[in-house]
Hints:
- By secondary structure, this protein is of the alpha/beta class.
- Helix content is 48%, strand content 11%.
- The strands form 2 sheets. The chain has a 6-stranded parallel β-sheet, sandwiched between helices. It has a 3-stranded mixed β-sheet with strand order 5-8-7.
- It starts with 10 loop residues before the first strand and ends in a 13-residue tail after the last helix.
- Bound molecules: fe (ii) ion.
- Fe (ii) ion (FE2) binds next to helix 6 and helix 10.
Amino acid sequence: MSISYFRTAETLITGSGSIAQIGEQAKKLNASKIIIVTDKVIRQTGLLSKVLEPLKAAEIEVDLIDDVVPEPPFENLEEMIIKIEGKGYDLLVGVGGGSALDITKVLSIMLTNKGDIRDKVGIEKVEKPGVPTILVPTTAGTGSEVTFNAIFTDTRDQVKKGIVSPYLLPKVAIVDPELTLTVPPAVTAATGMDALVHAVESYTAIRADELTDGIALQAIKLISRSLRTAVYNGKDLKAREDMVMGSLLAGISLGNAGVGAVHALAYPLGGKYKVPHGVANSLLLPFVMKYNAVADLEKFAEVAKAMGENVNGLSLREVANCAVQALAQLSEDVGIPASLKDVGVAFSDIPALAEEASKVERLLSNNPRWLSVKEIQKIYEEAYGTVETTTLIPVQA
Length: 397
Ligand SMILES: [Fe+2]
């Protein structure tokens, strides 16, 4: 058994209505001046009153910045640093989806560390802890509230880049399903599938261990049983509870075991074509898993079982194939496009996309099966719908 580290938020608060605890938590962190970091869409929903009221009741000074944009470029972050530095904030509260939470995490470290933000890209390039943070997700997907990475788009080369540091973890994460009840179906589908990708990729990752395995499997179970209901009947609190818990568990597993080739191949689609992260991941998931499954039949069989597939009487290979098919079916059921054509990718761009994805060594080296540029290109081509590869595990008679 190799040595591994397990990290997550210092305190996790979950459950319906748990956002009411935020005032008490801010006080425990000795906060006197807080800035809430969010985006304009969240501001318009009226959700912020649930965050603001307990903070005001705790008699803490609160400011708000709503400049976060989706899939944020470094420039978005740089503009926000200029606006908030030197104002004496001693607690940052991130409210929103992955973009708002990632920005909050990086603002926190940029207030205490010198240098350009691009110098922090990579693993453990941050020298000092940041200003304390409380993270409040309003979608069930990224798991950003418990991961120690943050992803940005570099507009210079249109590539998504990650900052990875344990200092990005929050003091407190508050995960309240009631905050997700009004998330529209398309966003519920894309973010929910992103969470499922986190669970499946981290479960089958090279760095997975006993701790992350149990967590990831439970995430797969919760998301598989409730994503369809959350998409088509968003007011169903039980389904939303499953989704926020599934997303949280998937985030914990991803934070510690990492993800793999699905994310590596999805990044260039987000950078160049602006395909939303969850859609890119969900679209690529069945194709990458079809390629990966042969590398770990046992684990893929466990994925099928966690997804509730009827596997009685099937061989191990057949059960592993069931997992691949069940993932594709779920993605289709929640309305995610099944082809790269449908998200505007030009076939002639595939060699360049494959070249770009092959550089995401940090993730590819954690994938259970090695991919060269040639294999990455084949997977993109299959996801485009032009070729049928033979990588599906042959079922023996
Ligand atoms: Fe993701």
